[in-house]
Amino acid sequence: MFAQTRAGKKKWLTDRIDILPFPNQTLRKKSQPTKSVQPVVKQSYTQEAEPPKVLSQPTGNVNSQHVSIKKILEEQKANESTPNQEDLPREGFSKEQVKMYWKQFAFQMKENGMETFYHALIKRDPHFLEEEKFGLEVDNQIQVDYITPIIGDFIDFLRKNLRNYQIHIELILTDDPSKEIKFLTGKDKFAAMARRNPNLHTLKNLFNLDIEF
Fold first, then answer.
1. Please, which of 10, 135, 153, 213 could form a disulfide with 127 given CB 3.0 to 4.6 Å?
2. Does 202 map to a domain?
3. Rounded to two decimals, what is the model's pTM?
4. Domain enclosing residue 115, as ranges
5. DSSP at 60
6. For residue 60, what are the CA distances in angstroms to 54, 57, 63, 192?
């Protein structure tokens, strides 16, 4: 009978096992303190609506108060390309040097097809009006109008070669355009006629006329 009691019921791995507590020990689960949850209050922001922007009709006029980058660059370029006049060379020269470069520029004009300017330069020697100021005598207003836009190139040529940047040239309209020097060849006579009428050079080049006689 004792044997039957000892072997009463067989324990399985899935059966519940009661654990006996130690003295002063409890198996109750301690209750966790409850945290107070603060309600989240959403703040609402109200923003006043901006009035719609009204675009004005373009007038085509630029506001003069605005700074023009293009204008600034042009001013800087002008300042860089225009050196200080006091820093440029101002050397002395002779009349022979002036006449030499005077004729040299004249033949450059001839090579470039500017016959009117060429004949105006070789017809008469320069007038020495002042120490650094020369006069270029011309026969008529046609020559004045033709030479005036390109006289700056002639001045720059003399300044660079004579190394004097105080040189100036003044156009002088002759008092007696009919007064001519004696011509020895037909080419010289044609040059005199062309000085009175520059269109003759156009006809000469157009019809390929031979004036060498």
1. 135
2. no
3. 0.49
4. 95-179
5. S
6. 18, 9, 10, 55
Closest by alpha carbon to 160, among 104, 78, 107?
104
Condensed to tens digits (0 to 9), the pLDDT of residues 107-166 reads 999 999 998 899 999 999 999 999 999 999 998 888 898 999 999 999 999 999 999 999
- The secondary element (H helix, E strand) that includes residue 173 is strand 168-173
Answer yes or no: is 73 within a domain.
no
How wide is the angle at C-alpha 185 spanned by C-alphas 182 and 190, nearest 5°? 85
- Token pair of 107, please? 């033949």
**pLDDT tens, position by position, 31-46:** 555 555 565 555 554 5
135 neighbors 126 (Cβ within 8 angstroms)? yes
> Does 10 map to a domain?
no
How many domains are contained in the chain? 1
Beta pairing class for 133-138 and 168-173:
parallel
Q: What is the CATH number of the domain that holds 164?
A: 3.30.300.180
